[in-house]
């Protein structure tokens, strides 16, 4: 059963050891302990900042972040992080300790965008585990200027994270700006966990929202 937990927050169990929380928030302000947490930056292959969440994360992290990105070795001229791969830097002025940079596919311009998006989530989780990250927050990768349909992206995000998140204490899926994302993600969880979500209710309003999962 879903339970309200404060203004704009709903909590429900997705398994005996895992709880899901939906709440308002800002990914650049999210953190758990400031030492084993990371936010995922939907970057471009150059890794030197851009628009949307990428730009917001760079602005919040301060100038040291772009210097750290400059130091990431290029695998090809001008490419530090190919599509579907992930890199990690410190968080600098962000409250979260690290930033994991990943590049999602451009939906209408990439060959096999489904596989590339799955790789972006999977490789982000792999980098997190390699660096002893226990808490990770994801944006809706590729759903902004890269035009990936929200419902398809949600299916890939949830299935990949569910499959590869063993060992993490918490992971979060960020709902960026649009309240239309909330029913997309919630309907998917209703399908996957119908017993837990029979009485699920949530507040849909035009503010930033997040979903995260805590392993208890």
From TrEMBL:
InterPro entries: Macro_dom, Macro_dom-like. Residues 7-216 form the Macro domain. SMART domains: A1pp. It holds the Pfam family Macro. PROSITE patterns: MACRO. CDD domains: Macro_OAADPr_deacetylase. It comes from the Eukaryota. This is Macro domain-containing protein. The lineage of its organism: Eukaryota, Viridiplantae, Streptophyta, Embryophyta, Tracheophyta.
């Amino acid at each position: 059963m879903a339970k309200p937990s404060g203004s704009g927050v709903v909590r429900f169990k997705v398994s005996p050891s895992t709880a899901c929380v939906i709440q308002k928030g800002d990914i650049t302000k999210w953190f758990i302990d400031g030492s084993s947490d990371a936010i995922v930056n939907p970057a471009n292959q150059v890794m030197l900042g851009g628009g949307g969440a990428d730009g917001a994360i760079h602005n919040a992290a301060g100038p040291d972040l772009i210097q750290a990105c400059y130091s990431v070795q290029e695998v090809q001229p001008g490419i530090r992080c190919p599509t579907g791969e992930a890199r990690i830097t410190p968080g600098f002025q962000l409250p979260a300790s690290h930033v994991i940079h990943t590049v999602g596919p451009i939906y209408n311009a990439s060959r096999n965008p489904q596989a590339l998006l799955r790789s972006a989530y999977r490789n982000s989780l792999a980098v997190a585990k390699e660096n002893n990250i226990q808490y990770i927050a994801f944006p809706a990768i590729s759903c902004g200027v890269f035009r990936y349909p929200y419902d398809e992206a949600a299916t890939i995000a949830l299935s990949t994270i569910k499959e590869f998140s063993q060992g993490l204490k918490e992971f979060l899926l960020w709902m960026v700006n649009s309240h239309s994302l909330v029913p997309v993600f919630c309907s998917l969880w209703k399908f996957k966990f119908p017993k837990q979500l029979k009485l699920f209710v949530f507040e849909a309003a035009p503010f930033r929202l997040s979903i995260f999962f805590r392993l208890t």
